[in-house]
User: Fold these one by one.
Assistant:
Number 1:
Amino acid sequence: MNPKTKEWRDGVLSVIMRDMNKNNGPYKAHHKFKWIILDGDVDPEWIESLNTVMDDNKVLTLVSQERIPLTPEMRLILEVAHLKNATPATVSRGGVLFVNDSDVGWKPFFDSWLAKYKDPKTGDTLAENAFILALSTYINDQFLDDLRHKSHIAPVCDMACVQSLTCIIDKLYQNLHTVKPQYDHLKKLREEGNEEAIKNIFDGFFIFAAMWAYGGSLDEDKLSFSNGFKSVSKIKFPDVGQCFDYYFSPIEGIWVHWENAVSPMNKDFEGLFSNLVVPTAETTRQRYLLDIHVSARKGMIYVGSAGTGKTTIIMDYFSTLDKEVMLNASINFNSFTDSKALQVVVES
Amino acid sequence: MNYLSMAQIFMGLSQTGSWGCFDEFNRISIEVLSVVSTQVKYVLDAIKEIKTNPAKSTFLFFEEEISLKVTVGFFITMNPGYAGRTELPENLKALFRSCAMVVPNIVLICENMLMSEGFATARELSKKFMCLYNLAKNLLSKQIHYDWGLRAVKSVLRQAGGLKRAEPDVAEDLILMRGLRDFNWPKIVVEDRMIFLGLIYDLFPGIQADAQVDKNLEDVCRTVTKTAGLQAEEGFILKCVQLAEILVVRHCCFIIGNPGCAKTAIWETLSKANTY
């Protein structure tokens, strides 16, 4: 975006603007709207080069003394999260559309997601009803408000939570239909017409997804979150431990401690002793969540202080993947890594 | 900007004897500025020399003999103390006389602009206008994207002028009120909405004006949203239409909001609606 100033080379923006202005390339004279969308944080370093474009001069002045005027159909749209770094000179030059969190919110997203289950052909009205009920039971305003006052290790927004919520539920739902024992169980319940039990499964899915989606990023307040969550949950948690210590078993319809899911240690491990990973309840549940997100092709972020096993868990997970299907590359970052260096690594 | 391109500018100005105005001068990095001060000094010294010795008409500018017309002049405009700006070095400051600029009396500007846009009761309206902006500045929460300065005043006035010409028979205060409300509405955050509306209704008592909405565009937006598999919520459609309204009057627009609050979806919907 920044034109290189030392020796003049056209940047992305100046090329696009010139093409729009001269109707080169993909831009045609009959186009009634030509928008340039600038997505990302505003930084005075580059935004002020646009000062002359943004005010009434409507001319982009390049360091090479070239001047590119804005034609009447051209518009600049900047999409930013905040203007903390922008100077008043910049702010006063543009119109502002402020989108409040509550203007659109996350409910439409949830509705879109639910619509999938509403579809008469492929849908599952039972699941839809169960999820709607669960949403109103667990994720109410009071809950969200409390959550906002708890301390998170990384900043989160409601939308992100809802996205992980739906992502986890989708995967659980999919597992229910693809994993043999689970599907057999579901079929049996369907044949019996035992709707209550099926609803119970979906309710469990929702609770499991919600506790990780909303509680996953908590640090010190995990305990109070867990207590609150355990008390509202319709499927009762065992009294011992936090809600995060359990996973939902659809076949039995109850909460099972992660310790029961730990796979035995690989005693015949032949690599370096330091590379040996002993599975525990913690690594098992982290792997499970990692697996959910990877199979949904979603990114994940692990935040924690040094030595908490972030790398170990992820590398251990990667080592179990099929190398033919998934490749991994670790990239170490430091303050000198720039976008170019990253691009080189990613492309290689 | 590097010192070589600055040297080019100085050479050009000195040879033609024209005046140069350097806007946002303190955005030049400090390394370049220190060279610039020497360059300015060279030209100023040469002017002095030629004035005392009229026979001479050239001077040595960085090892190049160039002609000089004594009418040459340099001016700087800048906003001190912003992020990303440097402080001018002392030796450069010494070469220019500084002059503090005072915020102009906006009421007068506003009155004149209203008059030129065709408002007959400009004096009264301009008072109300500025009263609203002053109150808004003080009473609403301090958001960094709020701007109640001269530039914002100008764009509202221009828009109000457009409204006035579109409907010359409608009462003037109604037009101005509608302009003020609809122009500022998109950027008011939820907490300030009631306060802002209260201010407007207090200043223009007894006036009820419905927002003018482009029903056609709204419907198209709704269809586009549904085809994209999204939920056509009222709030979402409203923001799309507001964006369209802003883009009519401004050629540059910020869409501000927290992550995941549908910023991208808004402009994508509108762009699809425009080409629908």
Number 2:
Amino acid sequence: MKAEEYAERQLELAGWPVNVASYRLGIQWHAKADNVSPGAALARATGTTREAAERRVLERAEELLGRTRRQAV
Amino acid sequence: MKSTNYTAKEPDVSLRAFLPQVQTASALGASALVDVRSPQEFTGEILAPPGLPETCQRGGHVPGARSIPWAKAANDDGTFKSADELRQLYASEGVDGSKPVIAYCRIGERSSHTWFVLKYLLGFRDVKNYDGSWTEWGNLVGAGVERGAAAKAAGARG
């Protein structure tokens, strides 16, 4: 099986840049969010549509990014 | 499928820097310390890359370390920069291979990339990866921690 309809975009979540990639494998859609720098995967999710997979992955990524505390320097 | 046996070689610990070596480098400046984390981690504004677990108690960097984020060694398309560009990148922070180099990050993963660049693309003779990295130093009782931007390379230890 090969990934089809691959799409990637960058957006901001909880004040941080995030890469979101999504693609279809057979009848299932997969999505992944990473934190751009250093590009570590924050979340992966699946769904029956691209929108559903991305919605889940963005919810989880936002939850994790929201825990990042900024210290006064 | 046929089963077989494989005997691994002993680990080459000469590639790794351990805490006492980093303490010496920080105190005496005999080795250059390269912090390859993001500028925000280097200054202490954040304790880990956004969204990842905070594995240390304090933010900042090892005293004397230079900030050269690992990804600066790469072009936008993911290829490595040319040898001349890499040489200039590290030399601009006083890291020219004239003395041993120790690279570190948070857990030693990003710094292994820089280790490869310094060791094999620039051919520096003595390069080590401090895999204890900020997770060790940033939790260490009594360890010196610098916060904010580093002093300029010229005349600075490192």
